[in-house]
Give the backbone structure.
Amino acid sequence: MTKSYFSIDFTLKGEFIKEMSDRVQGEPMDMDRHDFELDELIERIKSNDNRLVALQVPEGLKMQALDMMDAIEEETSAKIILAADPCYGACDLVHDKMQRMGVELVAHMGHSQMNIDSGMPTQFINVTYEGDPAIDPVLPILAQHHAIAEQRLAEAQSGQSVDSEEAQERFLDAVGRVAPLTGTKLGLVGSIQHLHLIFDYKERLEAAGFEVEVPVGGARLTFPGQVLGCNYSGDQDDIGHYLFLGSGDFHPIGLVLHTGKPLAMLDPYSGDAEEMSFERIERILRQRFGLIMACDKAQSFGILIGEKPGQMRRTLALRMKKMLEKHGKKGYLLALEHIGPELIDFYPVDAFVNTACPRIAIDDSVRYAKPLITPFELEVALGEKQWETGYQFDEIP
């Protein structure tokens, strides 16, 4: 009889693992309250008589990977290979190299399926967390943010225009950049581990007096209320502010950069509530502004193309090269599976344009010796886009 692995006793030991989990996943791992849903995978392996299976897990769960491998091998005839390269999302799928090893099935843990094809049969395994934080700590923040949304709605309806200097200031303003609002709803979103709680929290927040919308995004997003580090396509003009159900700041930073809307965070692990500081977002925007200005005199650019199936934007990279040529500048197309300073800083170019994972430029630019900018930022530097548009977050649809 197949035993349930919904409550496998995985325990983390030591501050190092907690810190890695916080840094990479954005959420500290309380393993006793996580569900690792391996039963369906085990049944699939048995029914297909798979003999060689690859297991791919996020960085924050790597220390539990060997226990998972043991659990699967004990219940099936399959041998398990851990895909031990870094994995930061469902866009980061194992592909042809596993096929060359003779792997028949890839089990991808902790992320939802995207609209991409890795070329390998892949099963996505949910990891959920049974948290139940009270909403009381976040209500005062939401009330403040609702007031900001009402003010911005009134400003949008007034139709005020801005001059060039005001437009550059607006570029640096975390809450002044969004398209005109048509409403002041509260958008309720979360990270993948907590989306099963979304509609329960929608009812609680509505009972507290808020008009709540659970946004539904594009094809890259699987569930209502889901956000990714590279995709916030569920945003709507009638949403005036957000509540993020999750922990860490990876998703909140991206959501505020994308929408320009106030955001509160409610942590299912600790029950703590806080807001994504406008000052922090504005520091990021000033950094981006500085990188754009640093590219003003640049004559040669390395254009980075991601080789991973979910990050490859070849057409965009070619468009950037053509645009550079239009302005009398040189663009070199560089294809990489992994991107880091040690892999590109030595190239004799003045700056880099990133068309791979959008968060590389946003989160890691300080690590590089030369300016690393997004496609939108290149368009601003070349005068193809105007400051009046405000900051445009790089997104993979």
In short: The longest helix spans residues 139-158.
